[in-house]
Amino acid sequence: MKPRDSLFSAGWMALALAGAVTAAVVVDRIGLQPAFLLTPLAAALVVGLLFWFKAPEGIGAFLLVSLLALTLQHWLAVDLRLFDETTVTTFLAIGVVRHGLPNGRIQIGIKELALLVFVIASLTSSLVGAVSLTTSGPAFILVMKAIAFFYIVSWLQLTVADVCRIGLVILATGLVIAALGFVELANPTAFQNALRLPSFASTRGNLTVVKSIFLHPGLLAWMTVFASLILYARFIVTRDWWLVPAAIVLNVLTIFTGRRTSLIGILVALLFAVAWHWRHPTHARWALGVWAPVLAGLAIIGALFLSSFATLYGESLSEYTAPPQLIADVLGPHPDPEEIATMPPRIALYVASLAIARDHFPLGAGLGMFGSEMSRVAYSPLYARYGLTMIPGLAPGDAGSITDTFWPMVLGEAGVVGLLGFAIFIASILVELWRVARMPGSAAFMFVTLAALLVFVESIVASSTSQPYAAPPIAYFVFGTAAAALAVRASLPALAARADEAGGATVLC
Fold first, then answer.
1. How far apart are the C-alpha atoms of 323 and 247, rounded to whole Å?
2. 203 - beta bridge partners?
3. End-to-end CA distance of the chain
4. I need a surface site. Which of 411, 418, 428, 448 has the fewest CB within 10 A?
5. Reported confidence tier of residue 101, pLDDT bands at 50, 70, 90
6. Is 330 within the bounds of a domain?
7. pLDDT in tens, 433-488
């Protein structure tokens, strides 16, 4: 891959970003109705146009607009809430009409059967529970849209070079946003005022929390972890020394977001990287030159922020534990909201989901009824039934913590059957990525597949305290990265055949 290839891709993606924003603003200012649909649809059609002619760049443009959507919405006062739904629908139509479905890509395996089990359980539970279609319908879309994106990307015929050049543009964007996060750290108030961002002031672990140009520090935490794992993967494969300091700097910024699960996710992902390195056919040995710099960098971070870590994770003891009597109260026949009011929101969601799964065995209470965005929009009666209405973050009018977990949502809404289906679906993707990442190939192929594996592993850790498989933009990056790696693997035979017909080798990166 030549550097100018990434520059061309960056130009196309920037043009699509500017065009999408301009189209949304024009439609909004003209006053076309319904604005909540037509404004994001205008932006989606611009990105879809790029996807028609240049599928990889179209995917990259979609990811960038999704990443910046909330900030752009704040700055421009336009409604982009349905941008991802309208774009995924546009991509699906264009994918079928323009790009087609490559032979052999549509296969029914364990992954698809597990997903089907989840879908059937979700829809059946909604019918049995007589959940309103205005609630269950949007809830179903919110869960399935990122999965649809996963399959759209996995059906594309992608080369390693495609993934490399689009990934480089996205990584560069992430590094710029991270740099702005360090600028914010110097004077958060002045930074926020200069960029017309909402006022935000918070501390965790005795550290000032930053969020860069995003509206929530959780998104910056995820982005810095995502970028650092890509750099770690590249270093493990290529041994370029400068990648480790760059990744460590990103991890330092992750610390200043105050997200504890993100830090754990990095460590778990790196443990998978160690296992990959040990088991890979061409890297099956312990290499001190690879892991010594990584371990040294993490040790330095640990020493510098030891007291902050002690405070940060000490706070977790109160936030992730609850007295047995409170747990028993939620699980009991007549929960007392006043007693349960002191329970941490995430613990309450986990415990209540067990009670819901028990009372609505085996299919759950129905889509949009618990732990999901729709259960907050149309405040679900289940929160009152299990005594959660006085917990800050779960109470009516103060329900910002309802979507702070993922698996309780699946268990509460789709029951034990749906939970098993979705868990097997996620596990199947992880197994596929592991197998693909262990295949011998070019350095670029190993880098792309290893990076996808690490990102997906981190998402599994993150799903304990957030919704990385449903909430945009993270869900699209997680599923998109995994799908791109699988698409590259699936495209190799066709690319090799073309190279043989041309009488030469196919250069993948």
1. 39
2. 208
3. 5
4. 428
5. low
6. yes
7. 999 999 988 899 999 999 999 999 999 999 999 999 999 999 999 999 999 999 99
Give, in degrees to the nearest 5, the angle at Cα 271 between 308 and 277: 140
Positive or negative, the CA dihedral 279, 480, 420, 324 is positive
Tokens of 210: 């930053």
| 3-state class percentages of the chain: helix first, strand second, coil last, to nearest 5 | 70, 0, 30
pLDDT in tens, 71-86: 999 999 999 999 999 9
- The 3 state secondary structure assigned to 153-203 is HHCCCCCHHHHHHHHHHHHHHHHHHHHHHHHHHHCHHHHHHHCCCCCCCCE
Cβ-based neighbour number of residue 272 at 10 Å: 20
Rounded to the nearest 5°, which phi and psi values hold at 342?
A: -85, -5
Side chain identity at 225, as an amino acid letter?
V
Non-local CB neighbours of 38 within 8 Å, separated by 6+ positions: 27, 32
Q: What residue numbers bound the domain in which 19 lies?
A: 1-100
Longest Cα–Cα distance of the chain, Å, equals 76
69 and 6 together in one domain: yes
As given in the structure block, the two tokens for residue 404 are 């702070």
Tell whether the model's pLDDT for residue 370 goes beyond 90. yes
Give me the DSSP letters along 16-68. Answer: HHHHHHHHHHHHHHHT-SSHHHHHHHHHHHHHHHHHHH-HHHHHHHHHHHHHH
Residues 270 and 340 in one domain: no
- Inside any domain, residue 301: yes
On whether the CB atoms of residues 472 and 70 are closer than 8 A, the answer is no
Rounded to the nearest integer, the mean pLDDT of the chain is 92
Half-sphere exposure of 131 (CA within 13 A, CB side): 31
The structural domain count of the chain equals 3
- CA 204 → CA 210, 264, 265, 315, 474, distances in Å? 10, 16, 18, 9, 23
Q: Which amino acid, residue 192?
A: Q
User: Are residues 346 and 405 in contact, defined by beta-carbon separation less than 8 angstroms?
Assistant: yes
* Residue 374 within a domain: no
Give the mean model confidence (pLDDT) for residues 322-349: 93
Residue with tokens 């534990």: 321
Task: Check whether residue 17 and residue 71 sit in a common domain.
Answer: yes
